From TrEMBL:
Domain of life the protein comes from: Bacteria
Active-site residues, as the UniProt record annotates them: E86, C118, H240
Alphabetical keyword list: Acyltransferase, Transferase
Keyword Acyltransferase: yes
Any one GO biological process: acetyl-CoA metabolic process
An MF annotation (GO) of this entry: acyltransferase activity, transferring groups other than amino-acyl groups
Originating organism: Streptomyces qinzhouensis
Class in the EC hierarchy, top level: transferase
Residue span, Hydroxymethylglutaryl-coenzyme A synthase C-terminal domain: 263-327
InterPro entries on file: HMG_CoA_synt_C_dom, HMG_CoA_synth_N, HMG_CoA_synthase_prok, Thiolase-like
Protein family per UniProt: Belongs to the thiolase-like superfamily. HMG-CoA synthase family.
Name the UniProt record assigns to this protein: Hydroxymethylglutaryl-CoA synthase
Occurrences of domain Hydroxymethylglutaryl-coenzyme A synthase N-terminal (ranges): 10-170
């Protein structure tokens, strides 16, 4: 009998993230920039940021994030991998194909890459849910992997970071059942972009903040106009967090749209459980909002049955406000210890070491290049040969 897609649930059954092996603390950064460290800790809400080793990239991070999901659930039902990134490594080949190979998955899977700045993973999630609603027997692996890089000595430098989130999307989601409708908001604006010839982003910092907050209004009003839940029904909201202080500003903006005026402390309390991972990892572009979700789910809060809001923003710009209902037994699906271990194992580096890594670049002329083993992760970029990236597992 044909399935009515509107009757099939879909959402996130498992969520796992990985980050890099190194980090730079904002205390160390402040010693170089001369900025008061309070500007970083309180003004933007960041205490450290993940820095990749030379042998870590979006593929190794995504494979590291996805491997525990495949180990826990097997891969027999995965029919699609959607890889969202704005740190693409090839203009043609999808980065997810390398991950597919590293994880040893069946050839009977479609793999594709998606891009719209930090919003890409939300497009992937919605497409994944649509696929699962059409055929509830299949599962989709959504990967969001990015390395946020700004110029040295620029204001954006303090908002770098790197991570990958992997999500298994199924018709019986243990963690979060996605709700409808979505509120959408698209506007052509040059707030942040990275032309093909650059390895660092260009950004108009102040304009990007205004664009982000205007998109909060735009997406929320569309969400409500389409019959979305009223604000007071939401337990909290996970925002895209290029730096965590922006979640406070965004929450205030949403409240204002509803005619509410909570105290600074009340807003901080509402969003605090969503910021714990991002404040030490930094911006991870496509993965950022999903790290906010992971932090909330991994927190002490009892969320079973609660509706939570999600605000996804990608510069340029596209935004979406949507909701999800936390599963009654969601705690059985968490990976809180593994997530905390990912963060705890990072080695803090000096500003000089960070600067050295930032200025190093892989050859762009096809010269054979070997990369020494440095990562603490399971997969590494071993080098480039014949214009081809060589990936290896670090353990048998
Ligand atoms: P800046 O000029 O270095 O910082 O740039 P500032 O002077 O605006 O200060 C930042 C905050 O610290 C301010 O708070 C200060 O008051 C406060 P606010 O007034 O805004 O509430 N401050 C202090 N607080 C306590 N003690 C002190 C102190 N001093 C100052 N002593 C900026 C900051 C975020 C603009 C910069 O880091 C930047 O350009 N970052 C990159 C762009 C960005 O993250 N934009 C966010 C929206 S766009 C987005 O989210 C998309 C994105 O993820 C990309 C994508 O979609 O792909 C970026």
């Amino acid at each position: 009998m044909p399935t009515d897609p509107t009757e099939v649930t879909a959402g996130i059954h498992d969520l796992s993230f990985a980050t890099t092996s190194l980090c730079l603390t904002h205390e160390e950064l402040a010693r170089h920039t001369g900025a008061p460290v309070a500007k970083y800790h309180h003004g933007i809400g960041q205490t450290s940021m993940s820095i990749p080793t030379e042998d870590e990239d979006i593929v190794t991070l995504a494979a590291d994030a996805a491997a525990p999901i495949v180990e826990r659930h097997g891969s027999d039902r995965i029919r699609t991998i959607l890889f969202a990134t704005e740190t693409g490594i090839d203009q043609s080949k999808a980065a997810g194909v390398y991950v597919h190979s590293l994880l040893g998955l069946s050839p009977h899977i479609r793999v594709v890459e998606l891009k719209q700045a930090c919003y890409g993973a939300t497009a992937a999630l919605q497409l994944a849910c649509a696929l699962v609603r059409t055929d509830p027997a299949q599962e989709v692996l959504v990967l969001a992997s990015d390395i946020a890089r700004y110029d040295l000595d620029s204001p954006g430098e303090a908002t770098q970071g790197a991570a990958a989130a992997a999500m298994l999307i199924t018709a019986a989601p243990g963690l979060l059942e996605l709700g409808t409708p979505s509120g959408l908001f698209t506007r052509d604006i040059m707030d942040f972009w990275r032309p093909n010839y650059r390895t660092t982003a260009l950004v108009d910092g102040k304009a990007s903040l205004d664009a982000y907050l205007d998109a909060v209004d735009g997406a929320w009003l569309d969400y409500r106009a389409r019959g979305g839940l009223p604000f007071e029904k939401l337990r909290t909201v996970c925002y895209h967090q290029p730096f965590t202080r922006i979640a406070h500003k965004a929450h205030r903006r949403l409240e204002r749209a509803e005619g509410l005026t909570s105290t600074v402390q009340a807003i901080d309390e509402a969003i605090a459980p969503t910021t714990t991972y991002n404040q030490v990892i930094g911006n991870s572009y496509t993965a950022s909002m999903y790290l906010a979700l992971a932090a909330l789910l991994d927190s002490d809060a009892d969320l079973g049955g609660d509706d939570i809001g999600l605000f996804s923003y990608g510069s340029g710009s596209v935004a979406e406000f949507f909701t999800g209902r936390v599963g009654p037994a969601y705690r059985a699906h968490l990976r809180a210890d593994a997530h905390r271990a990912q963060i705890a194992r990072r080695e803090p580096i000096s500003y000089a070491a960070y600067r050295d890594l930032h200025t190093r670049a892989l050859p762009v002329d096809g010269t054979p290049h070997e990369v020494g083993r440095r990562t603490l992760g399971r997969y590494r970029l071993a080098g480039i040969r014949d214009h081809q990236r060589q990936y290896r597992a670090t353990r048998p």
